[in-house]
Amino acid sequence: MNNSILEVANEQGIARHQQQVELAKDLLELNDAAFENIVGKIESFQVAVPSWALGTGGTRFGRFPAGGEPSSLEEKIEDVGLIHSLTRAANSISLHIPWDIPKDAAAIQQLLKKNELTIDSVNSNTFQDQKEQKRSYKFGSLCHTDDGVRQQAIDHNIDVVQHGVKLNSKVLTIWLADGSNFPGQHHFRRAFARTLDSLQKIYRSMPADWTMLIEYKPYEPSFYSMIIPDWGTSLKLSDACGERANVLVDLGHHLPNTNIEQIVGRLLHFGRLGGFHFNGSQYGDDDLTTGAIKPYQLFLIFHELVTGANDSSVKNPHVAYMIDASHNLKDPIEDLMNSLENIRTAYAKALLVDFSALEKAQQENDVTKCEQILQAAFLADVRPLLAEARLRSGGSLDPINFFRTQKIREGLISRRGKTSIATGL
Ligand code: LRH
Ligand code: MN
Fold first, then answer.
1. Contact 52 CB / ligand 1 (< 6 Å)
2. pLDDT single digits (tens) 134-151
3. Does the model's pTM come out above 0.85?
């Protein structure tokens, strides 16, 4: 990003921004130290962008390309670099193999460095059959009844780790579309035991400083059962693999009305919360903009994370924050910047909770007081704090407005064409 254009654009909004900051300090009763503390924490809060969400994935019924989509890993890194240069909130990318195989790891490393990015997690894919593949995953992969199919899937995961090693990643994310479509199709206990055995083989093959994230999901359309349907199953599999295996919480992977913030609290209690795939959903795994539909739930999830982080009795490893989304109607880059804003907003609001007053009210079972304390933080306008964090780290005061006024999508279309298609969702 040409920083001088960014500075000129920020200049136009700086006076108004400073007014809003002073007003926010006043309204939120933040003295300078408290303000600095929160803005500092917002600045360092980074979320990984998925390499598979830079195009318009479409639904099973139709796809409506945005134009100028990245059609190579190099162009995807360029787009995430742009998102990071404006938001300063996305300093890493999650890769999906084989959708984004890095052909020349050294060249990719160079490009990542130029865009101030690193590779966060590498994701395996045993939910699609690749052209050159010998055995099909039609009836599953790590759970398959055939040794050969399971070994093929294990080898793929080991191969994915090798790609990650070349790019300094240290996290393998596994999501399985393994399951059954009809009662009787699976022997539940044996299918689980085969999956566990396969995961343990992958775990033992990982370098000693790598982490495995096991992602659960209750259903896919047409499924009667999934091998890893819920957090409990993912937790037990993590336990059985080893201390470097943890649970990945994809917000869209819950049945309606599931109390996800309580699941986060539980996983923090057990010290096995490995990471998040942030997205928004109304009904199913809609992969929409994070916080677009349930902002209070997102705030409550961050409330669990912040109270957990402030509690020395919680022994939880590093939590990987990633977005996992797909786009149909919104511009993919705008949608991802929207999600980053909503995620940092939920975090900033959670930092504003008056914890000592809340603990006192909880101790006294003053239910109304407890709710009032949480909602006071949730109803706070933290936008000036987020803008200040972006400004201080060299970003844009208003990323989406800058993206539009600079006609960046139009520029991408003129360079890449209207019909370029991105691999992934
Ligand atoms: C499955 C999932 C998983 C990915 C895929 C792209 O629904 O959430 O994280 O591998 O989306
Ligand atoms: Mn996911």
1. yes
2. 999 999 999 999 999 999
3. yes
